[in-house]
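S., here's the first fold you wanted:
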Amino acid sequence: MKFLFICVHPDDLEFNCSNLISYLTSTDNSVEILSLTQGEFGISLDQWKGPRLAKIRKKESINAAAINGVSAENVYFGDIIDGFVKYNSEALGYVLNWLNKLQPDIIFAPEPYYTYYWHSDHINCGRLAYYIFRKKQNLLNHPLRSLYFYTTVKPTIWWPFKDSSHAVRALSFHRSQWWLLKKVRLFYPIEKFNLPYRRKIGSWKFAERYRRVYRKGKNPAINFILKVILGKLSRSHTVNPPRSHYTVPDASTPFGQKIAQLRSEN
């Protein structure tokens, strides 16, 4: 069985899926990772933004993936710019091309609807995965068997574990993100604490939560009010940096020109 874990930033999976990925790689399954961006804007210091930070974060991601048993040749990076993952036909074609190249059986992606993390990149990545799985399987060379969402608040399956040290160790490789991860590291055991689900999965201390998506029926209804809230939160600065964050010191470089173009399209 071939699993593909899709994320939008190089450190997303270590926080959300470390224990499941580690288990899958310890069995006879193939596991690959696709980060749609290279995390070019994952820092507040302008002089580090862009290709310089991307190079660092790619190396960090490969080292962290190795802790979970995923080899470097199975870690892929897209060239969508951090902060500019869109839900449109161009992005749809882009993800479809990756899926046709990698041909996974089962994919994991960030929850786009029932989530506690309303970053627009995450939301749009999940929406693309959902739309492809439900509506565009005919465009895939290798049909998808299943889609699961992480960062969900409406889980249907749980992956239990006893100790948080494994995931924290994997997270520690993302040193460029320590300004954020030193807070996330404290939040991790709280977010994964199993108390609400003990009746379902037993007395495990922690659990990763996933929502299975079905091609027909059985999916939670997404009502109009939730769509409105989703839209407002995804455009807020609660988890999304302000527009001013996506700037670079030298706008004359190819990367700077690309950012100027993307900003003008927003």
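And the second, which I think is the more interesting of the pair:
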Amino acid sequence: MEKSVVLGYSGGMDSRTAAERLRSEGYRVLALTIDCMGSKELCLTAKHYAEASDIEWVLYDAREEFEAKIIDNFCQSYSCGLTPAPCTRCNPLIKWAILERVADSLGIEHIATGHYFNVAKQDNRYYVSKGIDPIKDQSYYLWGLKQRTLQRALTPMGNTLKSDIRNNFSERSESMGICFLQGRHYSDFLLSRGVEMPEGDIVDLSGNIVGKHNGIARYTIGQRRGVGIPEGVRVIDIQANDNTLIVGKMEDLYKDRLYVEECNIVNPERLLSSERVTIKIRGIGRNPELPVHVESYGNGYLITCQDKAWAPAKGQPLVFYEDNLVLGGGIVVRYE
């Protein structure tokens, strides 16, 4: 029987390369374009390249689902003083879920994307594993994938350097940032969605009012510029319950105790017993480098960092690693 795979397909250089690699391995590729925002350009581009490569192409309208599960959550999170990461939410709830749904409807076992990551099987479980390209590795964004997804996932881009792919294409640009913002500042997007931004107090760590902000949704942890922020301080906390920003010095942003909930952990025993667990609180940028201590706490985990985490934010994903393996992740709910 011919091997088949449903591939998430945008028509960009990564998905086109993934398609050709899967075909070279003997797979019949079904190119599935997931339309989350009604983009005619995306659909036409993907269809063009699929047809040019003689690959079967299917369009899936996910606009309503994307709106309900990703955009609404994004807006609600910011209005509550949280810092969401919509890509880590979209992957398990939209992209990979739809790939599975379509594959199941067609009786196809395998699914794939153009993500730069690998899947490793250890202790009879499946783990997201880093891709070999340290710059392009996208494992951080895939911590929410479940076992049922990983066991059928193919990873044609996992052992690839992005620089090698770029050399094969005339185009050099690629989509960056949060897709639905389409280049806008996130606060402008929130305003367009009716998120209210009432003014409130900016206070220092002693409780003194030092300024007025123009809506907590306009500010992020670590921010040092913006309406009302005095010179020489940064936002170190956002308190939605009383519509207040807390500001302090740079050193006040370093935290050594992080609490996470809403976790997806492959093997809790391994997470709690390993002495090589490291964490990422952001996909790109400053992350603690030394191993951390993890213990169970309430509905989640308490992470104690010997190498303090810089500017963690409530609502932000925290991902656990053991060497190249993603042991799981969760959402930061508190820090000290």
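Why I say that: The chain is about 25% helix and 30% strand. Residues 200 and 242 are 8 Å apart (CA to CA).

Talk tomorrow,
H.
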